[in-house]
Amino acid sequence: MEFQDVVRRRRMVRRFTDEPVTPETVDRLVHNAVRAPSAGFSQGWSFLVLTEPEDRERFWTAATPGSSQRDMSAWLAGMRTAPVLVVALCSKDAYLGRYAEADKGWTDRDEARWPVPYWHVDAGMASLLMLQTAVDEGLGACFFGIGAGEMPAFREAFGVPDAWVQTGVVAVGHPADGGAKGSPARRRRKPLEDVVHRGRW
């Protein structure tokens, strides 16, 4: 598929068929993810791949929000049909350690040196590559997060070390009709001239 077609066709898919995703495709997703850029080539990311039904059920049991003001039932009903979940995690410690090495010139691990948390930025870019790979494979995908209240249960369910925090989850599968409508169904895309500033703001 042409790259511009991949970019144009990428959207968040929220319901999937029961057709499986091949192991080769799952491997391609993560192989492409680790081609993302990372500050200082820190590569402070990890990917928890869940393809077995019992592992996915354990994920949803741990990560599903409890009672809230927002009705998530339609979203959950669709998302739980995804045959592949890839949790993208990152390690702040890996970045602080990398930039304290001699070739980077910092002699300490002061987090205040970082204007933004690049550990999450880099894991986000890796996640985007997985979203684009899914489109290139003729699949659908959706990026979503695990709520702060659900993080302890998620960590316990999968033995995630304290040094690793989730940036988000990529759900992948063959697109099905239906599923919860996303914000693009309710909001227009901003015109390019409203968001691109050339030369100065």
What can you tell me about this protein's structure?
With 201 residues, the protein is an alpha+beta fold. It has one domain (3-195): NADH Oxidase (3-Layer(aba) Sandwich), CATH 3.40.109.10. The chain is built from eight helices and four strands. It has helices spanning 3-9, 23-33, 53-63, 73-79, 92-98, 118-136, 151-158, 192-195, and strands at residues 45-50, 84-90, 140-144, 165-173. The chain has a four-stranded antiparallel beta sheet with strand order 1-2-4-3. The longest helix is centred in the middle third of the chain and has 19 residues, at 118-136. It is globular. The two termini are 36 Å apart. 25% of the residues are buried. The mean pLDDT is 93.
The CATH topology name reads: NADH Oxidase
Task: Give the assembly state of these chains.
Answer: single chain
The Rg value, from CA coordinates, equals 18 Å
**How much helicity do the residues have?**
25-40%
Question: In order across it, which strands form the biggest sheet?
Answer: 1-2-4-3
* Uncertain spans: none
- The name of the CATH superfamily reads NADH Oxidase
**Count of individual domains:** 1
Profile the largest sheet: 4 strands, antiparallel
What is the level 1 CATH name? Alpha Beta
Distance between the termini: 36 Å
Taken as a percent bin, the fraction of beta residues is: 5-15%
What is the average of the pLDDT values?
Answer: 93
CATH architecture label name:
3-Layer(aba) Sandwich
